[in-house]
Amino acid sequence: MRFILFLPRKKAIAVFAVLTKIKPDQVLYGNGIEQSDFEGRVIRLDFGDITLVNAYFPSGTSGEDRQTYKYQWLDEFFDFLADLRKKRPKLIICGDYNICHKAIDIHDPVRNKNYTGFLPEERAWMDKLFENGFVDSFRHFNQEPHQYTWWSNFANARGNNKGWRIDYLNVTEPLRKSLMHAEILPHIVHSDHCPVFLELKLK
Prior knowledge:
The protein is of the alpha+beta class. It is built from 4 helices and 14 strands. The chain has helices at about 35-40, 65-85, 120-130, 135-140; strands at about 5, 10, 15, 15-20, 25-30, 40-45, 50-55, 90-95, 135, 150, 165, 165-170, 180-185, 195-200. The protein has a 6-stranded mixed sheet with strand order 5-6-7-8-12-9. A two-stranded antiparallel ribbon has the order 1-4. Strand 7 (about 50-55), helix 2 and strand 8 (about 90-95) form a beta-alpha-beta unit. The longest helix has 24 residues, at about 65-85. The protein starts with a strand and ends with a strand.
């Protein structure tokens, strides 16, 4: 399966899509949470026993209120995934998470430690995700530093590779053995993000 994600921004409303050559068995919009669904942050597609959830996580860059909502959304989304896994254990959770998980995922962890996207509470949420049966597909294959998916448009950040890894293709544990290859494609320039790629071998 190959999926192309488009993640442009428009105020608080999320705009993104999934392009697929394989017709899904089912497409569902939203996660049943009013504010999240109003902002259009989640799409679910079922392909046989595989479920793809494409999510655009909130950003806290516009102020304290949005950061507070980000924490609320993270808790609600975690519960949504926990419920979904009971019926659909083979999940792929992809999209712009707006969170760097570890120091290796950001160009300057010291100076950015108090910035949204790298706050302790956000990183702890990522810890919880991976401690509860999710696999970071990129780090499954690659433990090298300086691997980023987003760069600021200022100060030639991309040219200097001063970036953040905030875009993920994560899978649940039942898909770990299906992982074949994952990489970041920084040479493809279409926005301030770059594509991320995951190959699975499915029966």
